[in-house]
Description:
single chain; mainly alpha; Rossmann fold; five-stranded parallel beta sheet; two-stranded antiparallel sheet; 37 helices; about 60% helix; disordered N terminus
Amino acid sequence: MLQRSTWSNLLLSAAVVATSAGSAVTWAQEEAPAAPAAAAAPSQENKSFADDFLHYSLVSNTELAKANAEALLKATVKPEDVLFAFEAAENGRNPREIMIRNAKREELREVSKQLLDKLEEGFRVVSRNPERIRAEVDRLGSGPRGYANAKARLINAGPFAAPVFIEYLQDEKKKSLQPYVLRVMGEIGRPLLPPLLEQLKMSEQGDKIALINVVGQIGYPQALPTLRHIVSDEKTPEGVKAAAEKAIAGIDRTGASPKAAADLFLASAQAYFAQKPSYQAPFPDQPTNPIWQYDKALNNVQAIPASTAIWHNIMAMRAAEQVIKLQPTNSQAITVWIAANLRRELQLPAGGVDPLKVEGKPDASFYARAAGPIYLNPILTTALTDHDAALALKVIDALEATGGTSGSVLAMQGAPLVKALSYPDRAVRFKAAFALAKANPAKEFTAHFRVVPILAEAIIGTGAPNALVVMADENTRNKMAATLRDSTNHYTVYTGSSLATALETARQAPAFDVVVIANGPEVIRVGQLGVTDYRLAGAPVLVTGEEESLPSIKVALAEAKGYAPLSQNADEAAITAALTAARNDVAVTPLDPEKANVFAATAVSLLNTLAGDRASIYKVDDALATLIEGLKDKRTDISTGVAGVLGKLNNIAAQKALATAALAPDVDPTLRAALLNALAESAKHTGNALDAASINALIKLVSSDGDVNVRTASATALGALNIPSNQASILISGQAK
């Protein structure tokens, strides 16, 4: 594993480029508000369509209102064209309100929604146009009415107005407007905070003091890390430092925040990663959100778009990078950076915008693998706590790839990899067992006995789901079981009048994809038994009752993760809906057959290795029942692999099962030969545990089977079994004839 100092240097070298009120106002002579410079004149046709739509909507002529709406939608391509048309036609009417009211009219609902969507998108596009923003800033000094109107439009521009504000504050020709700019910045407030904090990287100290004053006026704690950093920097002039200290005092009135900038940046990184309320993307309903970057050449900030789904991860990484620059050995910051980087890749939507994705740059797994357990264990703990199966799988892959499952992982109290053995998602549970099996530690650890049963579960977990149905009423129970069996997913259903009896019938079930249980005292027992029976740990639970009782059941289950109410007479659609809700609550993903096959093959390979290690802490015999059942698996690679595992065991039952399978009629010759070779291997460890009938059947195979590989394998098995001489003589005599 890389040492902390080396790791910090590696991380820093790959870090993203940092994108990472004042004087009194006096009003100029009041003028009539000017039209925004960037507001293009709409075509007369579009204006007429918009005007007529508004008119006929208000007089309730739905037919003509709809016709004009459709004509406008057909005539326009860009959303801003719709905006310009309605701005020109509004004449004291509020287009948004009219469209919202139209949503109550069936004839106008759809076209009004389409128009409203285009109107809102056009408004966003136009409100962020720099020329339009400049026109509004120019109006700020035109008197109270002009200021109010300009302020309303600048509020809509939000953070995208920041570069223009900064531009005006630096322009001597705009000196008369600067007091108004500073005032409106403070009134717009929080949306401006990210670009303003980024702009504080500038070197011009006079402008910096003005911006610090605005940041202090805005008053949000997100500013504290940057302000503390300014104060603690020995290069900061006293005037700037005093302004920053004043701003800090105004934001942190109790003085309870940490004094070290690194601690504040770390708290910010953790808050962004956890998506705490004031650390979320400013435009959650839009596909992208801005990441602000300071451009030294322009002495201004630029907005870099990033997909909204990963915005918080990028912000967490940037804050963590600030910590690492100040404290290169800060393990918590490195952990947050790695976790956010992994989630950034995992949560990026298809076709999404990722400003950190650069050709040739290592992916997130590169850094995770380089980090080692000291950084990965906390991430895995977070993933399990947050029910983030995708992140958990990434971390386990990194631990497994680097051998990081031994040593500190297993030695630590409450190791997250061990906890993952009880995780409700099968893929996470399997991968954790695979990693621990590969590590094959010399000493026992907590829950080591779960590894082999989970490997066995992976072998027979073909992706076909299992359901446990617990209902006292037999008719209701049978009806629910039939619905599940006959559903699209074709559940294997285990039933019982009580939880205990249902689990007794499901002894061989490797896992439960859903538990359906009647409302009552036994609902609590599911969670209690899940502590010792991992099949119930986190399994989605549907609690049934009469239709009229479902609201009260929902209230009772409000605090229970992975539980959902269900009508006892529910059809397949209702079951699917309730199960989806319960699964989403605990982030459980059904296992598809393709993945199930990969997991099964991996489990067989690992069990084969462990079976050959007589000193291993893992007891492969614990999977005996599953392995014997696996001999019937229709996947040839699995059944032959299972045979190989059974052959390595010193176990009489395993040997008899191999013989029974090998001597059964109509067995594929390739599989029969593999079974016989495994039988020979078993004889080396166990001796001969077969009866005379089985031996005679073996001799018959050697004497008469048409496949040379089967005959050779039969002979090998006979030799390994060390059969009595009188039985061998039968074979010799047959040959002599």
